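Re: beginner question about structure tokens

> Can someone show what the tokenized structure looks like for a real chain? I only ever see the sequence side.

Sure, here's an example I had lying around. Input first:
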Amino acid sequence: MALSALTRFLGDTPLRVFLKLLVVSFLVGLVMHAFGWSPIDVFYGIRQFFVDLWNLGFHAVDRFVGYILLGAAIVVPVFILLRIASYRK
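And the corresponding structure tokens:
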């Protein structure tokens, strides 16, 4: 009964899962060695991707706020002048 629960959890028999993982690990290790990567390089690459994504998001917000402030430098004084001009009437 315990073996069937383990087999159900793994999706196949433990020996077949072990062999599949062994083959895939060998292929991934071969590719990583060919590119000169190490597991820590992969970790740092993933980490740097999310850091760049985070910074890019805030850079976009910074540019958006910059455009608003740039436009407000013209719009707000013109609005005030038009309100003052219409107040006299």
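Each token stands for a local structural state, so reading them left to right follows the chain. Residues 38-89 form one domain.
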